[in-house]
Amino acid sequence: MASSRDETCRRSVRRVSSLKTVVSSAVVAGFGAGLSLIVAIGAQNAFVLRQGLRKEHVGAIVAVCVASDILLICAGTGGLDQIGRAASWALPVMRWLGVGFLLVYGAISLSRAWKDQSLVDQSERTGASRWSIVLTAVALTWLNPHVYLDTVLLLGSLAVSHRPSQWWFAVGAMCASCVWFPVLGYGARWLRPLFASPRAWRVLDVVIAVVMWGIAASLIW
What we know:
The chain has about 220 residues and is mainly α. The protein contains 9 helices and no strands. The model is unreliable at about 120-125 (pLDDT under 50).
């Protein structure tokens, strides 16, 4: 009887250990996949970087980006990717809305490049309002079809491949967003000495314009 109980205990321990291994591997895989998708230079990251350099409503922007990623990852993991494939009209609509917004924002960035800009004390300048910055962050996130292709379709498909631990994979991907955006937004201040001159700001705004227009061109073609 004692040996039977010991064997049952050993089996339980092995099952728990195996479950922990599966869960941890799913979380690590989700973190790596999520980080690899969001670290690439894009419209959203360029905007977060610029506002981080200006120290302008960084917390609100980071909150929008993280919350949006969490919602999109949950949608993909929960099977919204299948609905997206069925609604074939949705992505083209989002694509052209995104193209229009990116072209306009790129033009705004290029126009800023012709102005003298430098980092000055927050009290010495008046920046954009919090709501306009938040709405821009929302638009850059939700009007970009690549967000749906990467975060919903691709991450959703990868999460499903990790069944029955797909939600642990999703947790790992969410953690990647929770780490990346605060690091990008608040870590940008370490680059402030580099952007003390107007020339550095011109280069940044030209790069942002090129990135925006490049993404728009990729959406068109």
